[in-house]
Amino acid sequence: MPITRRILACVTAGALWTGGLGLAAVTTGVATAPPAAALDNGLAITPPMGFNDWNSFGCNVNEQLIKDTADYFVSSGLKAAGYQYVNIDDCWLTHSRDAEGRLVPDPVKFPDGIKGTADYVHSKGLKIGIYEDAGTATCAGYPGSLGHETTDAQSFADWGVDYLKYDNCNNNSDGTREDFVRRYTAMGDALKATGRPIVYSLCEWGQQQPWEWAGDVGNLWRTTGDISDNWASLKSITAANLPLAAAAGPGHWNDPDMLEVGNGGMTDTEYRTHFSLWSMMDAPLLIGTDLRKATPETMSILLNKEVIALDQDSLGKQATVLSSAGGASVIVKQLANGDRAIALYNESDAPQHISTTAAAAGLSRSALGYRVRDLWQHTDYQSAGTIAATVPPHGTTLLRVSRPGHLLQDPALVDAGVDGTTVHIQPGHSADVTTYATNLGTAPALDVKVRLTAPDGWTVKPKGRTGTVALPGGKTLATTWHVTVPAGTDTATYALTGTAGYRGLVGGGTVSVPLTGQIAVAVPPPAGTSYLSDLPWESASNGWGPVERDSSNGETAAGDGGPITLQGTVYAKGLGVHAPSTVAYYTAGGCTSLTATVGVDDEKKNSKGSVEFEVLADGKTVADSGVLTNAGGSKLLTADVTGAQEVQLVVTDGGDGNDSDHADWAGASITCS
Predict the structure, then answer these.
(1) Catalytic entry in 106, 133, 162, 167
(2) Cys bridge to 584: 218, 364, 494, 538, which one at CB 3.0-4.6 A?
């Protein structure tokens, strides 16, 4: 497999995208994976924490990088926070074995060999990991370990290796589970025979459901293909890994792949979600960025000891989904001391109000309510029982809930946000929005003051009171604001931000909780029939690369697609997307119909790509193509969108993962009055 294709191949091999959280098959609060037997080697009693070079460096690995990383672990506080493994991925070796059939470290990249590098890492009180492959060659084309398991395992032990990641490229497999089990068991047995404690990480991309059999073979197993540094990948892998909670436990963990935090492809909000969800899912926390260039914000995420504590909790119970609807999910993790960690996860592109109760999360009733600690704000609150927040797009509010509450010591938990769905305003126009601040505690919140801000140049004026001397438990302060958008403002979605500040009953200063909402500045289509590719969209998301106008999806770069082609017919106009994808247009109630020819683009002819197209009018499905493949041909799709304020073009993966799901909205047009 060419090295430039490794990530794509791994993503398509294992990722299980099902749209949204993909949890329709998950009974509320119950994971679907069967329990796995546990390998009793005394290792990875909590999920491994450390570093792996692949996500940031690929094949550009060398001894100095590993030593620099080990030094930084010590100087930055990462070692003290629990990170201990400094792992070398592919490309560390030469292309030939020696005369005795042993692997040879690249003498240019590793002048002191793996043994010398390991000695240095060990001298820092850390451990070292290495990479090999259960095939004839690694993913980058270096010698694989298939048929050489005993020799290679002994080399790893002789060098002082503490961790092995074992990949799945070039495996000569017949595709059966028996073959996968045989190949991975062979290396596991060889590692055991060396007598050296080596954590064994299986990387077969979830192809043969390793959560069902790998627990008595290794310490962790990849559940999906490789992660990529983008939101669609993170969302897809989360959806695939969450239902597998029953398979995980001390010494045997589900592995949704390494961390992308700090690599630049996502926002800090998305990276906090990444770190939150990986910790809730008891995932290995393997840093994948160049720590020598890490920003303070990246380090604040990686060093959040309160979040790490969830991942490293001694009970070792992976979080499960309590509820999930419309892109808003409540995820709950039981902790060893009886507390519950609750993640309010918003995978959607708009702020969402997400709510549950302490009782629903599994805590018994408490007359004094509950202590609620925000693990990113590092602040304690008191709740009478409801746990809620308005969560920004792609964000996660991460809370640790315990009983009893501290009625006087902690300020009340206040839920603040902008009421309702996204408001649409045309440039040069105004609209009203309403904020709310609800006291979820028992005692009153004192001196409550609400602020709302918009982008520079906009005006925001309150139309009612913005504060109150006391807000009793269970009561809401609602404020209407008049928002004006300047003429000439570009069409886009803009954030509204603000705070709700207040005091508790006893001592302490003012508490400030964030307030979030958004406004879409949009212009409706002109009268008549217009091609959608000629109109500004309100928002667009895509599973691989950007949404393309008048060309196929291509690959990850903008403009790298070809002509939109379905069954040999070339279309000059249309949208090229990749599942999962959503493209939204503001229609202001003035449009009547939408038409497109839909299908899998010919650039994926003879592939296994399968997709399903839907048109949504104000969130309601008004047209559905059913599952389409390239071989099955294209389909004319017509939708009645009369009166809709917003129209969404949605493509999902057809139920079999998003491999090769290059989808076309060919000739897509909309008719408006």
Answers:
(1) 167
(2) 538
| Burial degree of 185 (CB within 10 A; 0-12, 13-18, 19+) | middle
Q: What is the CB neighbour count within 10 angstroms for residue 409?
A: 14
| Contacts with 97 (C-beta within 8 Å, 6 or more apart), sequence order | 103, 104, 143, 148
Report whether pLDDT(135) > 60. yes
- Has 226 been annotated as catalytic? yes
Please give the single-letter amino acid code of residue 211.
W
Place of tokens 């001694």: 314
Which residues, other chains included, contact 426 with Cβ-Cβ below 8 Å and sequence gap of 6+?
485, 521, 522, 523, 524
CA-atom Rg of the chain in angstroms: 26
Residue 656 in tokens = 């079999």
> Which pairs with CB-CB distance under 8 Å and at least 24 residues apart come from 559-566?
561/603, 562/603, 564/601, 564/664, 564/666, 565/601, 565/602, 565/603, 565/664, 566/597, 566/599, 566/600, 566/601, 566/602, 566/633, 566/634, 566/664, 566/666
- Give the bridge partners for 52, in sequence order: 87
Taking only the tens place, the pLDDT of each residue in 360-388 is 999 999 989 999 999 999 999 999 999 99
| Longest alpha-carbon distance in the chain | 83
Q: Is 258 exposed, middle or buried (CB count within 10 Å of its CB: 0-12, 13-18, 19+)?
A: buried
Nearest to 660 by CA among 618, 612, 610, 623: 610
pLDDT reported for residue 539 = 87
Distance of alpha carbon 27 from alpha carbon 146, whole angstroms: 40
Residue 459, Cβ neighbours under 10 Å: how many?
12
What would the pLDDT profile of 165-187 be if each residue is shown by its tens digit?
999 999 999 999 999 999 999 99
From the list 53, 106, 133, 226, the catalytic residue is 226
What pLDDT does residue 644 have?
Answer: 96
Q: What number of CA atoms fall less than 13 Å from residue 349's CA on the CB side?
A: 17
Question: Is the Cβ–Cβ distance between 43 and 164 less than 8 Å?
Answer: no
- Element spanning 97, H or E: none
DSSP class of residue 80 equals: H
- Distance from C-alpha of 352 to C-alpha of 21, rounded to nearest angstrom: 14
In 3-state terms, what secondary structure has residue 5? Answer: helix
Contacts of 385 (CB under 8 A, 6+ apart): 357, 358, 359, 369, 370
**Which residues lie closer than 8 Å to 377 by C-beta, 6 or more apart?**
513
